[in-house]
Amino acid sequence: MQAIISNNQEHYQFEHINKIDSVSHLVTGKNPSIKRGFIDGLNYGLHVPDNAEVVLQNRRELLLHFNLPGAAGVIPEQTHSCNIAIVTHENADQVFKDTDALITNQKNIIIGVLSADCVPVLLVDPVKYVVASIHAGWRGTVAEIGAKTLFKMNQIFGSQSQDIIACIGPSISQKNYEVGNEVARQFRTGSQRKIDDHKTCIDLWKENKDQLTDAGVLTKNIEIAGFCTFAETDKFYSARRETINTGRMGSFIAIK
Prior knowledge:
Strand content: 25-35%
Number of domains: 1
Largest sheet: 6 strands, mixed
Helix content: 10-25%
CATH class: Alpha Beta
CATH architecture: 4-Layer Sandwich
Low-confidence stretches: none
Number of strands: 15
Distance between the termini: 21 Å
Number of helices: 7
Mean pLDDT: 96
Radius of gyration: 17 Å
CATH superfamily: CNF1/YfiH-like putative cysteine hydrolases
Structural class: alpha+beta
Shape: globular
Strand order of the largest sheet: 1-2-3-15-7-4
Protein backbone atom coordinates (compact mmCIF):
# COMPACT_ATOMS: atom_id res chain seq x y z
CA MET A 1 0.00 0.00 0.00
CA GLN A 2 1.27 3.45 -0.86
CA ALA A 3 0.37 6.96 0.24
CA ILE A 4 -0.85 9.36 -2.43
CA ILE A 5 -1.68 13.06 -2.47
CA SER A 6 -5.04 13.75 -4.06
CA ASN A 7 -6.70 17.18 -4.00
CA ASN A 8 -4.11 18.25 -1.38
CA GLN A 9 -5.14 15.40 0.92
CA GLU A 10 -3.16 12.29 1.91
CA HIS A 11 -4.87 9.02 1.13
CA TYR A 12 -3.80 5.48 0.23
CA GLN A 13 -3.98 2.95 -2.58
CA PHE A 14 -3.13 -0.72 -2.98
CA GLU A 15 -0.48 -1.65 -5.53
CA HIS A 16 -2.39 -4.80 -6.50
CA ILE A 17 -5.50 -2.85 -7.45
CA ASN A 18 -3.58 -0.08 -9.20
CA LYS A 19 -2.52 -2.68 -11.77
CA ILE A 20 -6.16 -3.16 -12.83
CA ASP A 21 -7.10 -0.48 -15.37
CA SER A 22 -10.85 -1.04 -15.07
CA VAL A 23 -11.02 -0.24 -11.36
CA SER A 24 -10.50 2.87 -9.21
CA HIS A 25 -10.15 2.83 -5.43
CA LEU A 26 -9.16 4.94 -2.45
CA VAL A 27 -8.54 4.32 1.25
CA THR A 28 -8.85 7.62 3.06
CA GLY A 29 -6.44 9.01 5.61
CA LYS A 30 -7.19 11.03 8.74
CA ASN A 31 -5.65 14.34 7.56
CA PRO A 32 -5.81 15.91 11.06
CA SER A 33 -4.65 19.34 9.87
CA ILE A 34 -8.06 19.81 8.22
CA LYS A 35 -10.35 21.39 10.80
CA ARG A 36 -13.95 21.74 9.64
CA GLY A 37 -16.31 20.08 12.06
CA PHE A 38 -16.20 18.89 15.65
CA ILE A 39 -13.72 16.14 14.80
CA ASP A 40 -10.34 17.12 13.35
CA GLY A 41 -9.55 15.65 9.96
CA LEU A 42 -11.67 14.09 7.24
CA ASN A 43 -14.39 12.16 9.02
CA TYR A 44 -16.87 10.28 6.80
CA GLY A 45 -19.06 8.84 9.57
CA LEU A 46 -22.50 10.31 10.22
CA HIS A 47 -23.03 8.18 13.34
CA VAL A 48 -20.40 9.98 15.43
CA PRO A 49 -20.70 13.42 17.10
CA ASP A 50 -19.59 15.60 14.20
CA ASN A 51 -21.22 18.34 12.14
CA ALA A 52 -23.43 16.44 9.68
CA GLU A 53 -23.09 19.10 6.96
CA VAL A 54 -19.31 18.87 7.18
CA VAL A 55 -19.44 15.08 6.93
CA LEU A 56 -21.66 15.29 3.86
CA GLN A 57 -19.25 17.82 2.36
CA ASN A 58 -16.39 15.38 3.01
CA ARG A 59 -18.36 12.64 1.28
CA ARG A 60 -19.10 14.80 -1.75
CA GLU A 61 -15.44 15.77 -2.05
CA LEU A 62 -14.49 12.12 -1.81
CA LEU A 63 -16.34 11.34 -5.03
CA LEU A 64 -14.19 13.90 -6.87
CA HIS A 65 -11.07 11.80 -6.22
CA PHE A 66 -12.50 9.17 -8.57
CA ASN A 67 -12.99 11.51 -11.52
CA LEU A 68 -16.20 9.72 -12.43
CA PRO A 69 -18.75 12.47 -13.18
CA GLY A 70 -22.25 11.54 -12.10
CA ALA A 71 -21.16 8.43 -10.21
CA ALA A 72 -23.27 7.32 -7.25
CA GLY A 73 -21.59 7.01 -3.85
CA VAL A 74 -22.92 4.31 -1.53
CA ILE A 75 -22.02 3.72 2.13
CA PRO A 76 -24.12 1.25 4.14
CA GLU A 77 -25.32 1.57 7.72
CA GLN A 78 -22.90 -0.87 9.34
CA THR A 79 -23.84 -2.90 12.40
CA HIS A 80 -21.03 -5.51 12.62
CA SER A 81 -23.39 -7.88 10.81
CA CYS A 82 -22.64 -10.44 8.14
CA ASN A 83 -25.19 -8.96 5.74
CA ILE A 84 -24.15 -8.31 2.14
CA ALA A 85 -25.94 -6.18 -0.46
CA ILE A 86 -25.72 -5.95 -4.24
CA VAL A 87 -25.68 -2.34 -5.47
CA THR A 88 -27.05 -1.35 -8.88
CA HIS A 89 -28.03 1.95 -10.47
CA GLU A 90 -31.63 1.06 -9.67
CA ASN A 91 -31.07 0.86 -5.90
CA ALA A 92 -27.98 3.03 -5.37
CA ASP A 93 -30.04 5.82 -3.78
CA GLN A 94 -31.54 3.63 -1.06
CA VAL A 95 -30.22 3.27 2.49
CA PHE A 96 -28.58 -0.12 3.00
CA LYS A 97 -29.42 -0.74 6.64
CA ASP A 98 -27.78 -3.41 8.80
CA THR A 99 -25.24 -4.12 6.05
CA ASP A 100 -21.47 -4.58 6.27
CA ALA A 101 -20.46 -5.49 2.72
CA LEU A 102 -21.40 -4.12 -0.69
CA ILE A 103 -20.89 -5.68 -4.13
CA THR A 104 -21.40 -4.16 -7.57
CA ASN A 105 -20.69 -5.13 -11.17
CA GLN A 106 -21.89 -1.84 -12.64
CA LYS A 107 -19.78 1.09 -13.75
CA ASN A 108 -19.88 4.49 -12.04
CA ILE A 109 -20.99 3.23 -8.64
CA ILE A 110 -18.56 3.99 -5.84
CA ILE A 111 -19.09 1.60 -2.94
CA GLY A 112 -17.36 1.95 0.41
CA VAL A 113 -17.32 1.00 4.07
CA LEU A 114 -16.14 2.99 7.10
CA SER A 115 -13.71 1.94 9.81
CA ALA A 116 -11.53 3.07 12.71
CA ASP A 117 -9.64 -0.10 13.79
CA CYS A 118 -11.91 -2.67 12.16
CA VAL A 119 -10.62 -4.36 9.02
CA PRO A 120 -11.69 -3.00 5.63
CA VAL A 121 -11.33 -5.48 2.77
CA LEU A 122 -11.56 -4.68 -0.93
CA LEU A 123 -12.18 -7.48 -3.45
CA VAL A 124 -11.76 -7.22 -7.21
CA ASP A 125 -12.67 -9.72 -9.90
CA PRO A 126 -10.84 -8.37 -12.99
CA VAL A 127 -12.31 -11.12 -15.18
CA LYS A 128 -16.04 -10.71 -14.49
CA TYR A 129 -15.66 -7.01 -13.53
CA VAL A 130 -17.06 -7.23 -10.03
CA VAL A 131 -15.88 -5.33 -6.92
CA ALA A 132 -16.72 -5.47 -3.23
CA SER A 133 -16.05 -3.36 -0.14
CA ILE A 134 -16.23 -5.15 3.22
CA HIS A 135 -16.24 -4.05 6.87
CA ALA A 136 -14.84 -6.83 9.07
CA GLY A 137 -14.84 -6.00 12.75
CA TRP A 138 -14.01 -8.83 15.11
CA ARG A 139 -17.58 -10.10 14.90
CA GLY A 140 -17.62 -9.91 11.10
CA THR A 141 -14.23 -11.58 10.97
CA VAL A 142 -15.41 -14.44 13.19
CA ALA A 143 -18.48 -14.78 10.94
CA GLU A 144 -16.14 -14.89 7.89
CA ILE A 145 -17.81 -12.00 6.10
CA GLY A 146 -14.94 -11.83 3.59
CA ALA A 147 -15.37 -15.42 2.46
CA LYS A 148 -19.15 -15.04 2.42
CA THR A 149 -18.87 -11.96 0.20
CA LEU A 150 -16.64 -13.93 -2.15
CA PHE A 151 -19.21 -16.74 -2.20
CA LYS A 152 -21.95 -14.28 -3.14
CA MET A 153 -19.78 -12.87 -5.94
CA ASN A 154 -19.45 -16.41 -7.27
CA GLN A 155 -23.12 -17.24 -6.78
CA ILE A 156 -24.48 -14.15 -8.52
CA PHE A 157 -21.78 -13.11 -10.98
CA GLY A 158 -19.76 -16.28 -11.51
CA SER A 159 -16.56 -14.93 -9.95
CA GLN A 160 -13.86 -17.55 -9.43
CA SER A 161 -11.71 -17.45 -6.30
CA GLN A 162 -8.44 -17.84 -8.19
CA ASP A 163 -9.17 -14.63 -10.13
CA ILE A 164 -9.86 -12.49 -7.07
CA ILE A 165 -7.56 -9.71 -5.92
CA ALA A 166 -8.02 -9.15 -2.18
CA CYS A 167 -6.67 -6.18 -0.21
CA ILE A 168 -6.76 -5.88 3.58
CA GLY A 169 -6.68 -2.25 4.64
CA PRO A 170 -5.37 -0.21 7.58
CA SER A 171 -6.70 -1.55 10.86
CA ILE A 172 -5.53 -2.41 14.35
CA SER A 173 -2.46 -4.66 14.49
CA GLN A 174 -2.06 -7.77 16.60
CA LYS A 175 0.38 -5.96 18.89
CA ASN A 176 -2.31 -3.47 19.88
CA TYR A 177 -5.43 -5.65 19.75
CA GLU A 178 -5.77 -7.19 23.17
CA VAL A 179 -9.00 -9.05 23.96
CA GLY A 180 -10.43 -11.22 26.69
CA ASN A 181 -10.74 -14.99 26.54
CA GLU A 182 -14.43 -14.87 25.59
CA VAL A 183 -13.47 -13.14 22.31
CA ALA A 184 -10.14 -14.89 21.76
CA ARG A 185 -11.61 -18.39 21.84
CA GLN A 186 -13.65 -17.59 18.71
CA PHE A 187 -10.50 -17.15 16.60
CA ARG A 188 -8.10 -19.69 15.15
CA THR A 189 -5.14 -20.60 17.29
CA GLY A 190 -2.76 -19.28 14.62
CA SER A 191 -4.25 -15.79 14.95
CA GLN A 192 -3.75 -15.67 18.73
CA ARG A 193 -0.78 -14.59 20.85
CA LYS A 194 -1.38 -15.29 24.52
CA ILE A 195 -0.41 -12.49 26.94
CA ASP A 196 -1.51 -14.08 30.22
CA ASP A 197 -4.33 -16.25 31.54
CA HIS A 198 -6.91 -13.59 30.76
CA LYS A 199 -5.62 -11.62 27.76
CA THR A 200 -4.76 -12.49 24.17
CA CYS A 201 -3.67 -10.40 21.19
CA ILE A 202 -5.53 -11.22 17.96
CA ASP A 203 -4.09 -10.87 14.45
CA LEU A 204 -7.11 -9.74 12.42
CA TRP A 205 -4.96 -9.35 9.29
CA LYS A 206 -3.87 -12.99 9.37
CA GLU A 207 -7.34 -14.21 10.29
CA ASN A 208 -8.94 -12.48 7.31
CA LYS A 209 -6.14 -13.55 4.97
CA ASP A 210 -6.42 -17.20 6.06
CA GLN A 211 -10.18 -17.17 5.56
CA LEU A 212 -9.73 -15.83 2.03
CA THR A 213 -7.06 -18.38 1.13
CA ASP A 214 -9.27 -21.14 2.54
CA ALA A 215 -11.96 -19.86 0.16
CA GLY A 216 -9.57 -20.27 -2.78
CA VAL A 217 -7.97 -16.83 -3.15
CA LEU A 218 -4.32 -17.18 -4.19
CA THR A 219 -1.80 -15.97 -1.62
CA LYS A 220 0.00 -13.94 -4.29
CA ASN A 221 -3.26 -12.07 -4.97
CA ILE A 222 -3.64 -10.84 -1.38
CA GLU A 223 -2.13 -7.54 -0.26
CA ILE A 224 -2.07 -6.49 3.39
CA ALA A 225 -1.62 -2.77 4.01
CA GLY A 226 0.36 -3.34 7.19
CA PHE A 227 -0.66 0.02 8.71
CA CYS A 228 -1.86 -0.10 12.32
CA THR A 229 -4.63 2.42 12.93
CA PHE A 230 -3.95 2.41 16.69
CA ALA A 231 -0.22 3.14 16.34
CA GLU A 232 -0.35 5.62 13.42
CA THR A 233 -1.83 8.53 15.38
CA ASP A 234 -1.60 11.19 12.67
CA LYS A 235 -2.57 8.95 9.76
CA PHE A 236 -5.70 7.15 10.95
CA TYR A 237 -8.61 7.34 13.38
CA SER A 238 -8.69 4.66 16.08
CA ALA A 239 -11.75 3.83 18.14
CA ARG A 240 -9.63 2.00 20.69
CA ARG A 241 -7.24 4.94 21.06
CA GLU A 242 -9.78 7.78 20.83
CA THR A 243 -13.08 6.07 21.86
CA ILE A 244 -15.91 5.09 19.52
CA ASN A 245 -16.84 8.76 19.09
CA THR A 246 -13.81 9.39 16.90
CA GLY A 247 -13.97 9.86 13.13
CA ARG A 248 -14.13 7.16 10.47
CA MET A 249 -11.96 6.48 7.42
CA GLY A 250 -13.41 5.02 4.25
CA SER A 251 -12.35 2.25 1.87
CA PHE A 252 -13.94 2.87 -1.54
CA ILE A 253 -13.86 1.15 -4.89
CA ALA A 254 -15.55 1.52 -8.28
CA ILE A 255 -15.59 0.07 -11.78
CA LYS A 256 -14.76 2.79 -14.27
